[in-house]
Amino acid sequence: MREFLKILKGNLDVQRALIAVVSLAGEIVLVNKAWSEFWKENGWETPFGETLNVSHLFKTALGEGSPNYIEAHAASDILNGLSDVLNENEPRYTREFELNSVTGLHMMRVGIRAVDLSGFRGAQLRFEILPRFFVQPAA
Fold first, then answer.
1. Is 139 a member of any domain?
2. Sign of the dihedral defined by the CA atoms of residues 74, 132, 65, 48, in that order
């Protein structure tokens, strides 16, 4: 299992999006380099190995008081999407949310997909913060 996660991390580290891999139990088992750097740049500890609480993540990273934040209903929607993917009700979840920012020109694209490889089952969470004019409708 460790070898698989090491290979997966190498593949995810080259991506610019913030990516976390979550076990069926809801624990973050792996984050990519962009995720770690984002948290370090903002003075937070990476919530690695803790039970995932999307609401907590958004309150910390994108909660009111930070330069960019999303509404509470968005965090709830993402948590429901994660639950649907982990429980195999849906194979994937993709949504875009407006970020309430100083410029008002950003969107956050969230993607969640099931992961079932080499005996590991869980989900991959992908967060991208984009200027609004780059956003294409989600497929």
1. no
2. positive
Count up the domains in the chain and report the number.
1
How far is Cα 34 from Cα 36, in angstroms, rounded to an integer? 6
Q: What's the one-letter identity of residue 48?
A: F
Q: Which CATH number characterizes residue 77's domain? A: 3.30.450.20
Q: Tell me, yes or no, if the pTM score tops 0.85.
A: no
Pairing of strands 100-101, 106-117: unpaired
Burial 26-49 (b: 16+ CB within 10 A, else e): bebbbbbbbbeebbeeeeeeebee
* Residue scoring higher pLDDT (6 or 127): 127
Residue 8 Ramachandran class (φ > 0 left, ψ -120 to 50 alpha, else beta)? alpha
At 116, list the tokens.
Answer: 């079932």
Which tens digits make up the pLDDT trace of 48-100? Answer: 555 555 556 665 555 556 655 667 677 778 888 999 999 999 999 999 887 76
Using CA of residue 82, residue 40, residue 36, residue 102, what is the dihedral sign? positive
